Amino acid sequence: MFCRTTFRSSRSNNDNDSKGSAQTILVIIGAILLILSPLISNLIQLAVSRRREYLADATAVSFTRNPDGLISALKKISEDDSELDVASKSNAFMYIESPFKNKRQKDESGLFSTHPSVVERVAALEKLK
Q1: Phi, psi values for residue 41, rounded to 5°
Q2: Residue 95 CA neighbour count, 13 Å, CB half
């Protein structure tokens, strides 16, 4: 949008210095947004994925009315140390827990993780009791 606006304005005959500096500022803002937008969209996608995990846990508790069962199941799933060969970043959101079994990710969920840690999920389920 910024590039097209600049291109159309530059074709007009009545350009002056203030208009040129405004166009330069718009081009710089457009370039910054062009660089940052993929990162921001990725962070939003990961945040939505983490929120969906919490929502799925709350829905499971409302269906079963047994948060202890879900807490026990989450703990059993998290104790499995085998890494899945078929898992990739593009389908990681479909697993109950993150399919990538590194120890750092098990203990804490970061800004770039698709799943909240089991500790955080269990704490959220404890609040539902």
Answers
A1: -65, -35
A2: 22
Q: Which residues of the chain have pLDDT under 70?
A: 1-20, 101-109
Q: Is this prediction's pTM over 0.70?
A: no
In 3D, which of 124, 85, 79, 84 has the Cα closest to residue 106? Answer: 79
| Domain assignment of residue 114, given as a range | 2-128
- End-to-end Cα spacing for the chain: 51
Q: Write out 40-76 in H/E/C secondary structure.
A: HHHHHHHHHHHHHHHHHHHHHHHHHCCHHHHHHHHHH
Number of domains in the chain: 1
